[in-house]
Amino acid sequence: CLEFDGSNEFMDLGDVGDLDGLTEITFGSWINPDKLEDDSTFIAKSNGNSDYAIWMRIYNNELSCGVSLDTSQESTVSLTDPESYLEIGQWNNITCSWASGEGIQIYHQGRLLDTGNVATGSIRNSSAPLKIGSSNWANETDFDGLLDNFSIWDFKLTEEEIANEVVASMGDTL
Questions:
Q1: Helix, strand or coil, per DSSP, at residue 108
Q2: What are the two backbone dihedrals, phi and then psi, of residue 164, each rounded to the nearest 5 degrees?
């Protein structure tokens, strides 16, 4: 379990080149926020400019996840009222899953909530670092709370597989 105090604490995994060029991806984490602030990032591979690949964050007061593709397209999904999905002081599992030619999907506690716009291509090659608890976006607020069981798969998990992963990891997190 990683604890972040919202003040310049994050984990920098460097340039994870294995994400470049993927045509499918699933990423997620158990999130236990101390508070929810706009522009708070949980997971991002971004340098803050146009060099970004994947993200999961609160942006414009919406829980958002997305992928940026080599075709200059993005597949994004945003949920209004993030407090409905991220209870302060409680463990919440958020998972995002995408495959080329489909819309990115966002799951809460293993249950599909919404599907974003369809985009075709592969995840853009990005030299930006993969960060947990932060990103390099301007005006960004570092995450304040706990993150656990952060995972990335280089394929799209099905809804059943995501639900099974949530159940399997509950003993480690709760």
A1: strand
A2: -65, -40
